[in-house]
Amino acid sequence: MKRYILAITGTTGGVLGLRVLEELLRHGEVHLILSRASMPIIREETGFTGDKGSEIVESYLFSKESRKEVRDMRLIFHDEEDLWAPVSSGSFRTEGMFIVPCSMKTLSALSTGYADNLIIRAADVTLKEGRRLVISPRETPLSPIHLENMLKLARAGVRVVPPMPGFYSRPETVDDMVDFIAGKIIDQMGLDHDLYRRWR
Ligand SMILES: Cc1cc2nc3c(=O)[nH]c(=O)nc-3n(C[C@H](O)[C@H](O)[C@H](O)COP(=O)(O)O)c2cc1C
Fold it and tell me: Rg of the chain's alpha carbons, rounded to an integer?
């Protein structure tokens, strides 16, 4: 079974990461890390409750009627402080990693290799092993520091996919926009999906 790492960090729009998670579970095993900062923001913006990241995620997936037996088999939670987790090592093989959404703090730590939590360590490992790393940095407006960090990472081969909606797919709801952005992010791992209508 293919393995993916997904991290959700503390920016507005955590629901984008949850939508990517829902889709990734169709494709394989997902190692999920929620940053401390992400949890209260997801609770505030979505209304999904829970003290632990796993509870918040479960209530989101439950609302989407995702099948529990699939989750039990494929979804593995890791604490961001747990630097002993398998995804901390390059010898643990994965297809790659997503950080959706990616805060400017995590972006800057990544661009300097300052790996003091599991999210940044796993991303650093993904990069050093030459595996696909897809990030969706979220901030607006962007300072020159944010832009320089993104450019540095893009030059190192990281796929930088900011959460920017497209309008050619004629979105009618916020969910349509979330799906469009999640689809563009997942495209970068070369996975099939029906999240948005492609231009013909
Ligand atoms: C409600 C709220 C919204 C935030 N939105 C953003 C954001 O859109 N982008 C960003 O870079 N930081 C945002 N932040 C700040 C980050 O949460 C903060 O820098 C944090 O240290 C990020 O840590 P993490 O990358 O480990 O999740 C927000 C904070 C709060 C409380």
Answer: 16
User: pLDDT tens for residues 138-193?
Assistant: 999 999 999 999 999 999 999 999 999 999 888 999 999 999 999 999 999 999 99
**For residue 119, which atom of ligand 1 is closest to its CA?**
26
Name beta bridge partners: 79: 34
Q: What is the distance in angstroms between the CA of the first residue and the CA of the last residue of the chain?
A: 32
Was domain 3-187 assigned CATH 3.40.50.2000? Answer: no
pLDDT in tens, 13-46: 999 999 999 999 999 999 999 999 999 999 999 9
Q: Which residue's alpha carbon is at the smallest distance from atom 28 of ligand 1?
A: 11
User: At a CB cut-off of 8 Å and minimum separation 6, what does 98 contact?
Assistant: 4, 5, 6, 7, 17, 20, 24, 134, 135, 136, 185, 189
CA separation, residue 138 to residues 16, 48, 135, 160 (Å): 11, 21, 9, 11
Substitution candidate for ligand 1 out of 103, 140, 149 with most atoms within 8 A of CB: 103
Helix segments in 25-168, DSSP class H: 38-46, 53-63, 68-74, 104-112, 118-128, 144-155
**Token pair listed for 42:** 């997801």
Distances (CA, A) of 7 to 10, 14, 44, 123, 150: 10, 10, 19, 9, 17
Residues facing 53 on adjacent strands: none
